[in-house]
Amino acid sequence: MHCGRAFHLGVIEGWKPAQTPNNITFGIAFHEWAHLDALGDPLAMATARDTYGTIPCIITHSNLTKNYLTDVCCAAKLRSSPYRVINYGTKNAASELQFHCPINDDMVFCGTIDNLVTDASGNVYLRDYKTTSKTPSDFFTTFSRSNQFIAYQLALSLHAEAFTGSPLSQYKVLGTIIEGVFLSKNGVKFETSAPILHDKATLDFYQAKLEAFETPANTPDGLFNGTCRTCTFFDYCNGDKSGYIQEAYQPVED
Ligand code: SF4
After folding, report:
1. CA 248 – ligand 1 centroid, Å
2. Nearest alpha-carbon partner for 127 in 97, 154, 167, 164
């Protein structure tokens, strides 16, 4: 991480800004709809709209209204995709799957995967939704070496080793596909990336880095490496803590 103090504030102490930018809450609401839709919940849309309306928003993108959210979710529902969520439409849908893997005595590697999906041949992939105001050209190439997806692929194999009876352990996942949701004032466009695959050497390298990871000292490194300007904790670090809230660590279940 770019700054030891930022690591302590965000990861260890659980501080985060009380207000979330509108584009982020839009993405959260869309993910909620996609999850509830996968579970077959008839109230998926109403819940997503409610989420979008109740999380504090800073308006940064005037196009991101509740009606636009409805349009995007409806378009996603109608979209014909070569991939389908495993157990789609049931309470066992492979959606919002939490993983956690003990790395050593001090560290647990954890996160949430949007979906596991299959193609027409029965191959299984991990799918991640990205809502963005960017345009499709070259969008996916920026993720070819994404830490996030290397981590997910590694996490699935580590989780399977640690929890052999868990639902996540049943599947051999070939790689990641990204479902791009491209937002614009002219409407929404969907595109699916080609599968992103990481070889064993990449996964081994990442695992070695994880195992060697040590908690950084709580020092304001950003003052010296130029990253304060874009830091989430800039106000906090400069004595104004009013715009922040602290969330307790929420352990996940097997
Ligand atoms: S404002 Fe700078 S020193 Fe403070 S946490 Fe952020 S990066 Fe670190």
Report:
1. 21
2. 97
Structure tokens at 101: 């893997």
With a 6 Å cutoff on the Cβ, whether 237 touches ligand 1 is: yes
What is the rounded distance in angstroms from the CA atom of residue 115 to the CA atom of residue 85? 6
The atom of ligand 1 lying closest to the CA of 6 is 5
| Max CA separation in the chain (angstroms) | 56
Pick the closest to residue 125 from 147, 94, 146 (CA basis).
94
Q: What ranges do the domains of the chain cover?
A: 19-78, 81-214
Phi-psi region of 43 (alpha: psi -120 to 50; beta: other; left: phi over 0): alpha
- In this structure, the strands spanning 108-118 and 124-132 are antiparallel
Ligand 1 centroid–CA 240 distance in Å is 13
pLDDT in tens, 43-61: 999 999 999 988 777 767 7
Of 204, 175, 211, 178, whose CA–CA distance to 192 is shortest? 178
CA distance 42 to 34: 12
Distance CA 234, CA 128 (A): 30
Ligand 1 centroid distance, CA of 224 (Å)? 10
pLDDT in tens, 96-136: 988 877 777 777 878 889 999 999 999 999 999 999 988 88
b/e code 229-253 from CB counts within 10 Å (16+ = b): eebebeebbeeeeeebeeeeeeeee
8 lines ligand 1 (CB under 6 A): no
Facing residues of 173 across strands? 124
pTM of the model: 0.84
